[in-house]
Amino acid sequence: MEASTEYPTVTKGEGYAVGHLDDLGDGPGFRKVRKGLDVTAFGVNAIVLPAGLESGFHYHDTQEELYFVHRGAIEMEFGDGSVQRLGEGGLARVDAATLRKVRNPGDVDAVYLIAGGKDGYIGRDGRVPEGEEMMRVKAMHDLSAEQPK
């Protein structure tokens, strides 16, 4: 394992990188998640948007985006004039060509993550390492037993 030189508190190992949002910058603005964690398959950034500010409209040529609100709340205004409010845990998918802007209607910083990509879903390609199939089945069974009914 080693730390990144540009992001010294991000830990990188063989095939992975681990960090915290605070590892990628301070204050308002972009947190370059893709760059900080060496993500290569899709674009991903986090934004810290202070209370009362808005991003202005934008769109993309080819990249569909998924927005996830981590903290606070945002309002998304779309090119058709509709406005949707997203609280913590809120999600929005936006086509590339759709105009959108984001504003923070709250009185605290809003923190949201945006993942973007193109060319579609590749399908379910997750695998369980040989010899661990039963451990996975047991873990899932134990987990489902703890769920309230």
Give an overview of the whole structure.
The chain is mostly beta strands and 149 residues long. The chain is 12% helix and 34% strand. The chain contains two helices and eleven strands. It has helices at 33-37, 133-145, and strands at residues 2-3, 11-13, 16-18, 29-31, 43-49, 64-71, 74-78, 83-86, 91-94, 100-103, 110-117. A five-stranded antiparallel β-sheet has the order 4-5-11-6-9. Strand 2 (11-13) and strand 3 (16-18) form a beta hairpin. It starts with a strand and ends with a helix. The model has no long low-confidence stretch (mean pLDDT 90).
Short description:
The chain has 149 residues and is mainly beta. The protein has helices at residues 33-37, 133-145; strands spanning 2-3, 11-13, 16-18, 29-31, 43-49, 64-71, 74-78, 83-86, 91-94, 100-103, 110-117.
Topology (SSEs and partners):
Elements: E1 2-3, E2 11-13, E3 16-18, E4 29-31, H1 33-37, E5 43-49, E6 64-71, E7 74-78, E8 83-86, E9 91-94, E10 100-103, E11 110-117, H2 133-145
Antiparallel strand pairs: 1-2, 2-3, 4-5, 5-11, 6-9, 6-11, 7-8, 7-10
Strand content: 25-35%
Largest sheet: 5 strands, antiparallel
Major β-sheet strand ordering:
4-5-11-6-9
Output the helix-strand order.
EEEEHEEEEEEEH
Secondary structure class reads: mainly beta
pLDDT under 50 segments (min length 5)?
none
Gyration radius (Cα, Å) is 19 Å
How helix-rich are the residues, as a percent range? 10-25%
Number of helices: 2
Mean pLDDT: 90
Q: How would you classify the quaternary structure?
A: single chain
Shape field? globular
What distance separates the N and C termini? 42 Å
User: What's the count of strands?
Assistant: 11
